């Protein structure tokens, strides 16, 4: 979603959203609330989501907040979000964290691909197309690392693994695009 759900409130302050931002776990918070949670804990590492306890490595401000750069309060909050994303957005993360972030990034990517007013960088589209073609060729080809004809259903493991690698690659490219768009490195 580009904006927080209606009839919802920030889980930190239990009030209506004020300069909302979405974390990589898909939960919405007031930007000052989630940054306050981060400052209250260790400012040397990313904060954990107050709802699901996942590590927050990316904060994306709502579309409406980004349109109010002239307001000093909004501008300061957006700068704080950019600082947070620069600190924790590009760091190495575990494979399990990347797999947990996969649905968030793929949903956002699909929404952007379907929106005719959004345009993704040409380099991103070219890399996505190239990875999709190579993955499709491997999965559909009769040449396999683990052949299905000999090992049956176990032979599908390499195809599933190639598909997972494809989706992780696309999510990583899209994450980089989001970071560059929202103040990361």
Automatic annotation (TrEMBL):
Any Pfam family the entry gives: zf-RING_UBOX
InterPro entries: DUF1232 (IPR010652), RNF170 (IPR038896), Znf-RING_euk (IPR027370), Znf_RING (IPR001841), Znf_RING/FYVE/PHD (IPR013083), Znf_RING_CS (IPR017907)
Organism: Aquilegia coerulea (Rocky mountain columbine)
Name by which UniProt lists this protein: E3 ubiquitin-protein ligase RNF170
Keyword vocabulary terms for this entry: Endoplasmic reticulum, Membrane, Metal-binding, Transmembrane, Transmembrane helix, Zinc, Zinc-finger
Regions that span the bilayer: 122-143, 149-174
PROSITE patterns: ZF_RING_1, ZF_RING_2
Bilayer topology annotation: Multi-pass membrane protein
Domain of life: Eukaryota
Any one annotated GO CC term: endoplasmic reticulum membrane
Places the protein is found: Endoplasmic reticulum membrane
Occurrences of domain RING-type (ranges): 10-53
Classification lineage: Eukaryota, Viridiplantae, Streptophyta, Embryophyta, Tracheophyta
GO terms assigned for molecular function: ubiquitin protein ligase activity; zinc ion binding
């Amino acid at each position: 979603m580009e904006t927080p759900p209606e009839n919802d409130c920030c889980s930190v302050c239990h009030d209506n959203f004020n300069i909302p931002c979405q974390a990589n776990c898909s939960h919405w918070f007031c930007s000052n609330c989630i940054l306050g949670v981060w400052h209250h804990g260790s400012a040397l590492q990313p904060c954990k989501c107050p709802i699901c306890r996942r590590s927050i490595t990316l904060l994306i401000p709502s579309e409406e907040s980004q349109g109010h750069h002239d307001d000093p309060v909004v501008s300061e909050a957006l700068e704080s979000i950019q600082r947070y994303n620069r600190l924790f957005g590009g760091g190495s993360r575990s494979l399990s964290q990347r797999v947990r972030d996969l649905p968030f990034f793929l949903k956002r990517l699909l929404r952007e691909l379907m929106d005719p007013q959004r345009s993704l960088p040409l380099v991103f589209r070219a890399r996505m197309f190239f990875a999709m073609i190579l993955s499709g060729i491997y999965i559909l080809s009769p040449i396999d690392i683990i052949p299905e004809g000999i090992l049956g259903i176990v032979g599908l493991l390499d195809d599933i693994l190639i598909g997972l690698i494809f989706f992780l690659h696309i999510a990583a490219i899209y994450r980089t695009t989001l970071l560059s768009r929202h103040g990361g490195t």
